[in-house]
Amino acid sequence: MQNSPSHTNAPYTLLPEDPSPARPPASSRRPVKVFAATAASVVFLTSLVMLIVNQSPETPTESDHPPRSDPLTSRATTSFSRDAGRLPTGVSQGVSAKSYPSVRDRLSYNWTNAMFAWQRTAFHFQPEKNWMNDPDGPLYYMGWYHLFYQYNPDSAVWGNITWGHAVSKDLIHWLYLPLAMVPDRWFDAGGVWTGSATLLPDGRIVILYTGDTDESIQVQNLAYPANLSDPLLIEWVKYPDNPVIVPPAGINPEEFRDPTTAWMGPDGTWRILVGSKVDGSGIALIYQTSNFTAFEAQPGLLHAVNGTGMWECVDFYPVSTNSSNGLETSVVGPGVKHVLKASLDDLKKDYYAIGTYDPVSDTWTPDDPEADVGMGLQVDYGRYYASKTFFDQNTGRRILWGWINETDTDYDDLAKGWASVQTIPRVVTFDNKTGSNILEWPVEEVESLRLNSTEFDDILVEAGSAVLLDIGMATQLDISVEFEIEGSDALEALEEPEAIIECATAQNRTTLGPFGLLVLADKSLSELTPIYFHIAKSTNGSLTTLFCADETRSSKALEVFKKVYGGPVAVLDDEKFTMRLLVDHSIIESFAQGGRTVITSRIYPTEAIYGAAKLFLFNNATGVNVTASLEIWQMNSAFIRPFPLEEM
Ligand code: DQQ
C-alpha cells in the first residue's frame, strides 16, 4: 500500500480572538437529596425459582396488532432527504449502523404507546426523537460540555446523517442546540460522519470529520467554530477547500473514516489517526500536519491487527500509570501508557489494548500481543459501539462516551419514533491493581441525581433462591452491591471443569454460581434480566470469574434480539465481588470490580415495567450460599430539553 499526502494550499482562516460576553447558563434544577438509610427489608424467598421459570410468551400474530400504517412501506410520509427510493441503512452504504434484526422483519410485539413511553430513559442522553448513533467531537469549552452525535433529523433509522449538538454544565442535564453540521456540500453530501475535536494551545478548536462525498468516497474534512467567543459554539464553518485528506492508494475509498483527536509529536507538529482495512486486517493510518489544512501520510501505520476487519472510530489516548488523573491527549513520557481502541465493524464491538507509544517512530506496541486490539479486552461487553474519549481540562479527567444500540427492529423504532441512547459518560483510568486494563466509572456528577437510599446488610441468598428487595419503584436506580461466598475455598475443588470459559445463561448452574441481581423482573419472574458473577474452573484447574448479563428472558417480544453478554473480570485476593448498576428504564449499565468489566444492556420488557418492575437478589449456585450487602438509590430524572435560545 502506498500512502499519498492530500492536497491543499488554502490558508486556514484565523478565528476572531475577542472574547464576547458569556451567555447566561441554562437553568438546571438540582434534585433534592434525601438520604434515608433503611436497613429493614421485606425478604421473600423463592426457592429454585429461576430453575422452573418457564417463559411462555404470548406469541404476537399479525392479527393481534391494531391496524396501523407500515412505516417501512409507507415511506411517502417519511421524509428522507436523499434517495427517497431506498431505505437508507448504514450497512448498505458500507458503514456500521444497526444491523440486526433484518430491516425486513415485520414481526412486532403488540406494543402500546405506554410501553414505548416507558422505554425512554430519564437520565441518559437521547434526542427528542429520531435516530442517533456515534458520539462525536466531545469537548469542554467556556463552561460548557459539548456533545455532538450522529443524527438523522428525519427518521428513526440511519440516514441523512448530520451532527446533532447538545450542551451541559455537568454532563448530566443537557440542552439541545441547533444541528451543528448538515450534509450540504459535495464533500459530505452522503453524510457528515464521525469525527473528533482538538483544542489547540492558542484557543482555537478544530474538528476533523469524515464526509461521505457525492460519489460515496470517504474523505476527511475540517470544520471550526464561526465564533470562538460563543460558549455554545452554535455555528460551524466547513473549510472551503475540504477535503483535507483523501483515501490513499491501496485503500478502499469506502473504508477510510473517523479521524481521531490530534496529539502533538516531539517535532511540534500534530498527528491524527484514520481507521481502515487492508487484506482483512484492521489498521490505523497516521497523518501529520502543522496547520490542519495540509496533511501528510506517515510512511508506516500506527498499528494493524490481522483478521480484525475494518476499524471504525479509532481512539488513541494516554493513561497515567501512577495517578488517577486523566491526561491531555499529547502527553507522553515515564508513567504513561497508551490505549488504542477500535470499533470492529465486523463484530460491532469496541476492543482496546494497553501498550507503549513511540512518538519518534509513531508506532504503538501492545503490552500483551496475545490480547492485542480485537483479541482481548472489550470497552464494554454489552450493546455498545463507536465509543470516544476526550480530555476534560475542566476537571482533569478523561471521559468516555459510547453509543447504546437498539436490538429491536427498525419497524419498531419507526413506530416508537426514536432509536439509540448514549451511555452515562465514564471516567477512564488505568487499573493500577491489575496493571492490565482500564477502569470505567460513571462520572460523579450522576450522583447528584441520587434521592433516597435503602441499605441491606448481609442478606443471605441460599443456593437456588431469589430474594425480592423491597425498594418501591425499581426503574430509576443506582445500585451498589457486594457479595461474599460462604466457604468458597473448600468448594473450589468440587467445581466441574469447563472446556469453554464464557458467559452462559443464568440458568446454567454450577457449584460456584451464578449469583447476582435480577433487574427489571416482574413478580412472577416471567421477565427478568440477570446481571451476575459466575466462577468457572477451566480444564487446567484455574478459576475465572465471569461477569455476565443474560438478556434471553428480558422481554416477551419475540422480534427483539436477545443473548447473553459478558466477559472475564479480575477479582483480586483482597476483594469481594462488587458491582454497580445504573438502571434507567430500558437501559442497564453494569460495572464489575470498580469498572474492570462493563456491560451495557438495552432491553424491552413488556411486563416488568412501571410499578410492576422489581429487583431481586439471586443465587443459582448449587454448592454455596452467598451474602449480599447493598445500597440502592432511587434516581431523579435529568433535565434534557431544547436550549431556550429565544430567551437569550
Ligand atoms: N458511524 C458513522 C461512521 C462510523 C460509523 C456513520 C460507526 O463514520 O464509521 O454514521 O458506527
Concise structural overview:
The chain is mostly beta strands and 648 residues long. The chain is built from 4 helices and 38 strands.
Secondary structure topology:
Blueprint: H1 49-52, H2 113-119, E1 130-141, E2 144-152, E3 162-168, E4 174-181, E5 191-199, E6 205-212, E7 218-225, E8 236-238, E9 256-257, E10 263-264, E11 270-278, E12 281-289, E13 295-305, E14 311-320, E15 336-344, E16 349-358, E17 363-366, E18 377-378, E19 385-392, E20 397-404, H3 410-416, E21 418-419, E22 421-422, E23 426-430, E24 438-442, E25 450-461, E26 465-469, E27 476-485, H4 488-491, E28 497-498, E29 515-521, E30 529-538, E31 543-550, E32 564-568, E33 577-584, E34 587-592, E35 597-602, E36 614-619, E37 626-635, E38 640-642
Parallel strand pairs: 1-21, 4-38, 28-30
Antiparallel strand pairs: 1-2, 2-3, 3-4, 5-6, 6-7, 7-8, 9-11, 10-11, 11-12, 12-13, 14-15, 15-16, 16-17, 16-18, 19-20, 20-22, 20-23, 23-24, 25-37, 26-36, 27-33, 27-37, 29-30, 29-36, 30-31, 31-32, 33-34, 34-35
The structure holds 2,5-dideoxy-2,5-imino-D-mannitol (DQQ).
Domain Glycosyl hydrolase family 32 C-terminal: 445-634
Domain Beta-fructofuranosidase N-terminal: 12-115
EC number: 3.2.1.26
